[in-house]
Amino acid sequence: MSELEPQALTPAPAPLAGAGVHAPGKKRRHYSLLNRRDKVLLAVMVGIPLFIFVVLIWAMTLVSVVLSFTDWQGNGPIHFVGLDEYTYLFTKYPDFWPALSHNLLWLVFFVCIATPMGILLAVLLDRQIRGSRIYQTIFFMPVVLSLAVVGFIWELQYSPIAGNGFIDSALVATGLINARSAPDWLGDPSINIWAVLVAASWRHIGYIMVLYLAGLKSVDPSLREAAAMDGASERQTFIHVVFPVMAPINVVIVVVTVIESLRAFDIVYIINHGKNGLQLLSTLITNNSISEASLIGRGSAIAVVLLTISLVPIVLYLTRVMRSEDQ
Amino acid sequence: MTSTAMVGERTTHDRARRRLRRAGLHLFLIALALLFAWPMLDAVYMSLRPYGEIVINPNGPFSLPGTLNLNNYTAVWNSQNLPGFYWNTAVITIPAVLLTLWISSMLAFAIAKYSWRFNLVVLMIFTAGNLLPPQVIIVPLYRLYLLLPVPPPLSGNGLMYDQFIGLILIHTTFQTGFCTFVLSNYMKTLSKELVEAAQIDGAGVFTIYSRVILPLCRPAMAAMATLLFTWIYNDFFWAMMLFGTGNKRPITAALNNLSGTYFTDPTQIAAISVMAGVPTILLYMFLQRYFIRGLTLGSTKG
Lengths: 327, 302
Fold this sequence. Notes:
The structure holds two protein chains of two kinds. Chain A is an all-alpha fold. Chain A has two domains: 1-33, no CATH class; 90-326, MetI-like (MetI-like fold, Orthogonal Bundle), CATH 1.10.3720. Chain A has helices at residues 4-9, 16-26, 29-32, 36-67, 84-91, 96-126, 132-140, 147-158, 166-173, 192-217, 221-229, 234-245, 247-263, 266-272, 281-291, 296-326. Chain A starts with a helix and ends with a helix. Chain B has 14 helices and no strands. Chain B has helices spanning 2-47, 51-56, 71-79, 82-113, 119-131, 138-147, 164-188, 192-200, 205-216, 218-234, 237-242, 251-262, 266-286, 288-299. The longest helix of chain B is centred in the first third of the chain and has 46 residues, at 2-47. At the A-B interface, helix 1, helix 4, helix 6, helix 7 and helix 8 of A face helix 1, helix 4, helix 5, helix 6 and helix 7 of B.
């Protein structure tokens, strides 16, 4: 200890001989300075949370996979039935393909419309314009609301005339449509998923805007100045200079967008528990295995489908973290 | 002389064009902001109107008010156990936020400030787990909660299911993933010399964590606390699935109990939605920069 003290406290370059002696030990200094009690403490700090996390999250994921090969109904012995539940899902279960296609539609809608909208707002608001903060506050506000509240707020808009919904009442009152042909935004299975997507985007756009603004703020301003000096227009600067240096944040945006569209649950659950045009993989899982029936095997098989899709963005994200960790 | 005149002309022309574009931009942003604010403003407006007035009006909710009052709020407050629901939310959210901050700050400290063999692997286990859709694990978790015995002071029915402790546990576990990731990134930006100097002074691991690192992490911890509070407050899924008893649910999930009873009266639905939304909106209004900082820390490194 006493030997290390002067070495560490002297910022001035040490004599060559001293540097030669201490340099190799420098990397391991953390270890050498940890006594037994410290090591035990560190192990506990990491070990206990890690154990709980692995049991509650990853072990449960594995159990989901195992249960998907059974036809267990919650009590009695567990029989393994191979891929029976999957075959049933893919060939006979009427809600499976609608649910999967709604999840994909959700994803495409977010990727093509909501996320670009958020990015556009971020780019517009990143410039020095008056009231930028006020705009940001308004666009972000839906993000702090619970999705359950979002569902209720939009029900007030979308309800049919009989339920005093605002949109239909306004359309009829202004004479744009007559009361009999007023659409039932949430009840009509051919349009309700679109109505829900608008409500979900309302919340998603502000989220993406804030994430992207954070990224834009971290771009070195001299890059932009240089581009402007070279005569690049604002649009050219964004496409050719800013967007490429934002690669790490773009990955985050993609991951957030995909994960959010796979997690979608609350709004449709509030509206009709995910039925009649609003089926999603997430609601099929809970409806089959928890809230309405106890078909553990079937719910787990749907969960495995959802897991498989989710692994794509998760792996993408992890490789990014790995890469930046290496640098 | 002529050239400067031309340049001057061009700049005034340019300036006029730029001003026009600015005006167009503001017009677009104002329209969009109104569109964004509308569903919230309308919910507040609805909540202040008597139901009878809307029903009688041929234009329904698309009409100017005759009277505005707080009757819907008092009606909902008196007929529903709202203080109870808020209390449930507090009993779940506050311990979950504190536990998450405590556990993930220790984890982040061990990961960021000491290098050991499975450093990165552990960080990955947490971050990847946090990205999983919760519906992937809900079926086995639900069964586990029905099986796990929990002694009486912590659980009223001897189980994890239908108990506050069960919800606190899953929130803490799930959020620890994200929070550890953010805090460890933040701690990596703190200077190494601080830890080394403390070590040389003979400080143990716990002292370094609590006296050196934690005080420096205050800004990041405040940002995380704001985000965690909002997310856990807003949870609907875990509370719906892991609570069988309606009156134990937090306010957001309790909304679902009420939707059946009040479906015919949108003004009371509006009042309840406003009441459920106000706490996080207020938090956001007062602590906006913490929200933004928290999200920024989560998406950019350092």
